[in-house]
Structure formats: C-alpha cells, structure tokens
Design goal:
Blueprint: E1 2-7, H1 20-29, E2 34-41, H2 49-57, E3 63-71, E4 76-83, E5 87-94, E6 104-112, E7 115-123, H3 128-144, E8 152-157, H4 169-174, E9 176-177, E10 194-199, E11 204-209, H5 215-218, E12 224-228
Parallel strand pairs: 1-2, 7-8
Antiparallel strand pairs: 1-12, 2-4, 3-4, 5-6, 6-7, 8-10, 9-10, 11-12
C-alpha cells in the first residue's frame, strides 16, 4: 500500500500555474492509495469547490475527506485526505493558537482490503512558540487516544526547520520516526519540513522524498511517499464516513 504526505500549496506550482488536475494525475501515476494533503484551497470565487475536488480525485480516488481550517463564502482551506478506501471514522482536533492562522489535526480510520489503517494528517504554524504548542497538542492527543491496536501513520508539514530540533522528543517516544530527506523549497531543498511516524515499527517498509522534474514545480514542497505493509487483520463491516 502506498501513502503520500504532500503540501500542495493551494494547487499553485512554482511555475505560477494553478492546476489541481496535474497533481491528481501525479498521484495516480504514483499509484498512491492514501494522500494526506496540506494547503488544499478552494476559496477563490472564480472556481467551484466540487470541480477542484473532482480534479484532484480524478478516476483514482473515491473519497476526499475535508478538514477545513478556514471556511469562506465560496470554499475552504486546510487539510484533506484523498483515499481509495472508505473511512469508518473521521475527526478533527483544533490546534489553533491565539493570534495565529487556524490549524488542526485531521485523523481517519480507513477500511482497506488488508485491514484498518489509522492516519493522522497535520500542518503546523510558522512561529516557533506556536509550532511547539501544536506539537505538544499532537503528543497529548496520541497519548489520550483510545488504545486501538490499529496500524497508525502520522505525517504532514510540521514547519520545523531546525536541524537538531528537540521539538519531537515526546512524539518520538510514542511512535517510530521515519527519517527522510529535505523537502522544502523544491528549487533548492534546505529544510526537512515534512515528516512521518508510524506504529508498529514494521508498518513502513520504505520512505522517500519524491524528487522528479515534475514535483520540482508542482508545489513548493516535495512529497513524502511511504510504502506500507499492514499486518494481517480480520475484515469487519462498518459504516462509511464521507
């Protein structure tokens, strides 16, 4: 199973072109099963929200699970999960800090052919104090979540640019970090802003930063791509949440 975490920069590439369809085509070409997206933006009056969703999903993804941080008169902005599998649970945790842009933690439990998969998608702020508070909220949420014996992936744009940051110490104690390369900016990658963790350790078989001529201009971030191997789990029926 292939999972990708991608800050898509509102669909605007480094070439200045807004085109969700080419991002959707890229995800399909990579045969991505689950995409954790940050900076999905449908707010401009000139566009129709459903058209943006359809362009990203194409004929590959069956569901887009929204997690807005900002809602406007013509659309919304925030996190989203594209998935080929139905969700049996979706939730959002507000991590906004006073005086800063709204942020959240998005989570879902997906019913895959190999069994359930718990995913958490998030996008932290630019300010150091704001960001540390949001990482603390993530670790608190992970400690307090129900003791579900379900494979878990946490990924997103954490905006932590310091090379030897200790901000993730608590998260590292709870989950298994998955080291990957620098993802930002695509013209000259200097910072490892996009990160991932998992549980159990063997869930992630491989991880890479997808650096190609195409991803160099699709967004200002390179995507993280994870290969997952879910442990055997008896399939159960559940009501889909869309």
């Amino acid at each position: 199973m292939r999972l990708m975490s991608y800050n898509i920069h509102g669909g605007v590439g480094t070439d200045g072109i807004h085109d969700y369809a080419r991002i959707g085509d890229f995800l399909q070409q990579r045969q991505v099963d689950v995409a954790l997206l940050q900076e999905f933006d449908t707010r401009p009056r000139s566009r129709i929200t459903q058209d943006d969703i359809d362009a990203l999903c194409g004929r590959h993804f069956r569901w887009l699970l929204p997690s807005p941080t900002v809602v406007g008169p013509y659309g919304w902005y925030g996190n989203a999960i594209l998935t080929r599998y139905p969700a049996t649970y979706t939730g959002t945790v507000d991590t906004s800090q006073h005086g800063f842009e709204s942020r959240n933690i998005q989570e879902a439990i997906l019913r895959t052919p190999q069994g359930p998969l718990h995913v958490i998608n998030t996008h932290n702020g630019l300010n150091r104090i704001e960001r540390r508070a949001q990482i603390h909220l993530l670790s608190t949420h992970l400690r307090q979540r129900p003791a579900l014996d379900i494979p878990l992936v946490v990924a997103g744009d954490f905006n932590e640019w310091q090379l030897f940051s200790r901000a993730f110490t608590r998260v590292d104690r709870l989950l298994h970090p998955q080291p990957a390369g620098k993802t930002f900016p695509t013209r000259l990658p200097l910072f490892r802003l996009d990160r991932a963790w998992c549980k159990p350790r063997e869930l992630v078989q491989a991880i890479q930063v997808v650096k190609t001529p195409l991803t160099r201009y699709l967004s200002d971030h390179y995507p993280l791509e994870l290969e997952l191997a879910l442990p055997a789990w008896p399939l159960r029926r559940g009501r889909c949440s869309r």
